[in-house]
Each structure stands twice: as structure tokens, then as C-alpha cells.
Amino acid sequence: MDKLKIENFNLKFDIKNKDLLVWNNEIIMSRTEEDYFKKMFIILEKLNLCANSILEIGFGLGISSNLIQKHLLPTKHHIVEIEANIFKDLLVFSQDKSGVVATLGDWRLTDLPEKEYDFIFHDAYDYGAISEYAKFSYDDHYLIFSKILKDDGVICHPHFGDGPVRDVPGFKTTIVERLKVSPITMWDQSICEDAAIVLRRKC
Q1: Which tens digit of pLDDT belongs to each residue from 96-149?
Q2: What is the model's pTM?
């Protein structure tokens, strides 16, 4: 696999519209997540987090990107998307948004500036072997995060279900709130009605 294919790729989706992304018989993202994300970002706004410089990993249907713009009001909103067709949607989104920087590629292989971001939102779909995902463990991701996150910055990611949230070395994990949400259709067609808002800070 050459470097170009590792850094980004162009997929033939089973379904791709404004409400649903399906590839390889798996749901990458659906509009059913919107209620959860709306609740999440309303609560995050009330926390008055510093969010001048934001990195968002994965654009999907643009749900979180729109909510970040509405509730967190970043000066710089850097969005990295690995899939070329979704990236085209990101470019359309970015046209009338000041401060949005769009990058096509695998965020793990992108040259991101050190100690740049106040807030990182990570909601990337695992495309499996074609993205060489196995080369990067969960902890590897946080080694990268620790380099690009400001010392007082925070990381946020979706947590579906009512189960425990795993700890990560070098970070303090906080469950801000557990939520009951409108039914979310998960990647495997199962339904989820419990979710949480999770923040991680360097320790």
C-alpha cells in the first residue's frame, strides 16, 4: 500500500446522502446521532471551555462541525477528513465559515503543529485495514494528542452506551454527564439510547 492510499482514499459508498453514510454494509454515520450531539455541545458551551483553536477529526455528515461553529465559536477550526468524497462536502461547508481549515488525509499521518489546539473533537470512523488502522493503537492516538494539545487543552469524543469509559495513560478522564438520547442507529444496526459526554485533560 503506497503512501497516497494510506493518507486518504476514495470509496464507493452503499448509501451516501444528507442523513446517512453506509460503506461495506456498516453505518459510518447517521442523522440519528444529532440529538446526542446537540445535547453534548449545549452542555460543553455552558462549561466555558477555551476553544479558540479546535481540531476536529472526521467530518462525516457535518453534524458536529455545525454545532462546534454554533456553540464553541472557535477562531480556528481545523477539520481533517480521510475520505475524498466526504472531503468534498467539507469543502462546501468551509466556504462560508471563517476560520475553518480543511485537510484531506489521515490525521495520524498529517503534520499537525505541536501544542496548537485548545480543544480536540475526535469522531473518526475506523475504516479497518484499508486505513492501516492496526498500526495505531488507542494509546498511540493519545501520544499524538499529547503533542498537539495545549497543556491546558481538552479532548472530547462520543461515548455510546452506559458502560465504563476506559482510562488513558497521561490523561485524566472526566464523565461530564450521562444522557438519555433519541435512539441512535449504530454501525451494526443496533440501537443505542444511552450516551455520555467525556473530556480528557493532560495530567
Answers
A1: 998 999 999 989 889 999 999 999 999 988 776 555 545 678 888 999 999 999
A2: 0.92
Q: How is the chain split among helix, strand and coil, in percent rounded to 5?
A: 30, 35, 35
Cell of 42: 449545549
C-alpha cell at position 78 = 481545523
**Contact partners, residue 200, CB within 8 Å, separation at least 6:** 142, 154, 155, 156, 168, 171, 172, 173, 174
Q: The CATH number of the domain where 197 resides is what?
A: 3.40.50.150
Q: Give me the residue label for grid cell 480528557.
A: 200
In contact, 141 and 108? CB cutoff 8 Å: yes
Answer whether 89's CB lies under 8 Å from 18's CB. Answer: no
Nearest residue to 166 (alpha-carbon basis) of 138, 194, 134: 138
Tell me which residue range forms the domain holding 58: 3-202
Q: Position of cell 462549561?
A: 47
Q: How many domains does the chain have?
A: 1
